[in-house]
Amino acid sequence: MPSAPVLFGRRLAAALLTLATVSAVTGTLPAAAVAPAVGTPAAARSVASFPKGATLIGGGRTGFLAKAGTTAAPYFWTAFDGTVTPLPGARYLAAAGTDTVVEDRGAGTYVLRDMGSDAELVVVPTPGMLLGVVDATLVMRDAQGIHLVGKEGDKVVRRSVTGLPSGRAYVRGTAAGVLTVSTSTDSAEFLSLVDVATAKAVRTVQARNHVLGFESVAGSKTHLAWYDYTPADDGGSFHLMDVRTGKVQILSGYGGGQRVALSDEWLAGGDTGLVLRSLADGRTVALLDRVRDVRPGADGAFLVDGTLDRVEGVYRVTVGADGEPVAELVASSGRLPDLAVTTQEVPSVVDFDGAESWAVFAWDFNLPASPTLTLTHRATGRQRILTSGHHSPPPTYRFTWAGFGGWKETADYSGEYTWKMTAKEVGNVGPDVERTGTLTLRRPAVARDHDENGFADLLVRDADGRLSAYETKQLREVDTAEPTPTVLHTGWNTYSLVASPSDRTIVGRDRDGVLWMHKGEKQKLLPRTKVGGGWQVYNKITGGSDLDADGRGDLLATDTSGVLWFYASTGDTARPFKPRVRIGGGWQTYNLLIAPGNIAGATGGDLLARDKDGVLWLYLGKGDGTFTARRKIGGGWQQFTHLAPFGDARRDGGDDGRTDLYAIGPGGSRAYPTTGSVDRPYGKPTSLHHRSDDTFKTVF
């Protein structure tokens, strides 16, 4: 018996309608003749209308099958001479590369027609579900598997497909003489190429990731193509197999969501535009600006629903005698308009009140687009460039601006911003669209936030005298790459002692013993103001703890005789400190002081002191400018050059109100988390990237 019976249908003369009649059925207007996009003459034929939103199903030598809308008779056949024939019935499939279509009449009855001739209709009664049609062979599925059904004279011939792995089988596509089938179980998925002539699977491959399976599947008599993902779902690759040898190539430029089709000599597909790749020598030819669908046609041709030079429609891609592919418009949906904005949602004020805050910007367009949003901080010129995620329901293109800023990058500053949205049409075939505006970013005040970005900073003076604010969150996360600090000021080598007694306030003592104060505002330090002279008597100063419980950080200093003095802040720039108050003597035993704030839950701000043997001691503040008796934290701290307050590692999950400790020396740096315990105020440290060197010369 013949292995693949050849059947013909009869084109009904009564169904041959003019374009005007087709317009009434499909709801579209007749189109004027449109010249082919590329190549051969069109003067001898008309170009039919292709309704907006219609779906290309398949076609062959004389035309193609498509579906428009959800009308009672949505299917129609468009001949390459411009004739459009509506088809009665609720469901049709096309045999790739031929003029055969099959109508599913329900109740197990199927009717095959050859749309390229007036041959008789062929009725095939058979049980099961219709999955496809190859040449004149129906592809059916029932509880026993996949079967190929044809007709020899009046006899229905039914053949079971063999060689498939066990499991649930699904037809992925058809082409001349072949079909592709996915077979899945709970733990594996397979893709098989089936030769219809023999009803056997000739090649089978297994998906690397059985959950995600296969995408962008295509088959022909000579090749099998597919995209699948790695087991860890960290990317995928596109595979092209030579069916005869089993050799597989990995091709770049093809993604998992692309439409692809195969002939014996070419691979056709594309993420945006249509590109043909020669299976013989690997050369590529770009033909269309955009592609929505691509199907195999007759004699190595392809049928493509796409766009060229802003004309939408169905194009027939053929290969000439010179071996060069050309595209010809065979049905037009009209000319695309230029890209335009249809929806815009942009905030004028953004409030980031914590690490998990975010703002959303959204646009929609009349065409598929690729937009980018650039936010520029007016005071500094610093930019944040965002790309959109694709969302449904609309607005489709949404940008999320995160208050957190990312673990390894500095969060954005408070203040005024300009924004610019630039959108490119998919395929880059038209002019860009641009929208601009302004907004204000507001953040709440955060302790030790010197650059006003919502996160505590570490102050660093380098060998060149630059004073910079390093975001503590960023320093915790950066491993090898250098973080990008905010440079607050230059020329700080003139000061021999520096400290930060309160938020956005920094003091420095010059070589003449004069103390100067710098107030911070909008990522910069304002011109300094003179506090007073006589500070040469001190060999250490530190600040940051609120010692008298008035809500302002204060200043502490030890003189050369070992006496510790307390300078209470006033909040008045003209007179920033009250007269000094003597705390007590004997502090010459310490070579480093740090005022980290309230770290152990007592009444006031606390003080850390390291003695000459490397032992670190804790003095709990009473809230009246004095301290309790010292408590020993532990030894070994002589390995560090500097100790400094270090924000709060738990701020991003809820601020516990205590500041961690940063320690840095020639051997590296560490972050010590606070515990809230008086007896053990710091927990197990985390090693960080930086060492004390020319960059981290002074840290406070």
Word description of this protein:
With 700 residues, the protein is an all-beta fold. The chain is 2% helix and 47% strand. The protein has 2 helices and 59 strands. It has a 5-stranded mixed sheet, with no helix packed on it. Strands 31-38-37-33-34 form a 5-stranded mixed sheet, with no helix packed on it. The radius of gyration is 38 Å and the shape is elongated. The model is unreliable at 1-44 and 651-655 (pLDDT under 50).
List keywords for this structure.
elongated, 59 strands, five-stranded mixed sheet, mainly beta, 700 residues, disordered N terminus
Shape: elongated
Note poorly predicted spans. 1-44, 651-655
Give the amount of beta strand, in percent.
Answer: over 45%
Give the N-to-C terminal Cα separation.
91 Å
**Helix/strand/pairing class, anyone?**
mainly beta
Please give the share of residues in helix.
under 10%
The largest sheet is:
5 strands, mixed
What's the overall average pLDDT, rounded?
88
Counting H and I runs of at least 4 residues, what is the number of helices? 2
How are the strands ordered across the major sheet?
Answer: 1-29-28-27-26
Rounded to an integer in angstroms, the radius of gyration calculated over CA atoms is: 38 Å
Would you report the number of β strands? Answer: 59
